[in-house]
Amino acid sequence: MESKPRLHVTLVYSPGPREVREAKLVLEPGASVAQALHTCGWLAGLSAQEINTLEIGVWGRKVELDHPLGQDDRLELYRPLKVDPKVARRERFVRQGSKSAGLFAKKRLGAKAGY
Question: Which pTM was predicted?
């Protein structure tokens, strides 16, 4: 007797800083993102507000719930950013000062600024 081919999908979610959840799922061929999320059961532990703010992607590209999954896809749940990365970088630069950050941290004797 021949077994049906199965989809192997990895689901990844980071509910907070330095915390990552990963689940390996085995699904029927032609399964959608919504079916994968339902199979995993992670959304049951989240509030409706948290679920509405999540975005979903496959290998870093945003997709809809009806998107069909392929073999060895990486399904990612994205939570909203609390701080814009550009603003955070500017604030770190101001806090550290121009002499100790980035290109200006190390300077060879007699070299131009930033080299």
Answer: 0.67
Residues contacting 102, CB < 8 A, separation 6+: 93
d(CA 40, CA 37): 5
SS3 sequence of 22-34:
EEEEEECCCCEHH
Q: How far is CA 19 from the centre of its chain?
A: 11
pLDDT of residue 88: 87
User: Domain 7-78 maps to which CATH number in 3.10.20.30, 3.55.40.10, 1.10.287.1700, 3.40.190.10?
Assistant: 3.10.20.30
Amino acid at 92: R
Nearest to 33 by CA among 2, 5, 4, 61: 61
Tokens 């870093």 locate to 60
The residue extents of the domains of the chain are: 7-78, 81-115
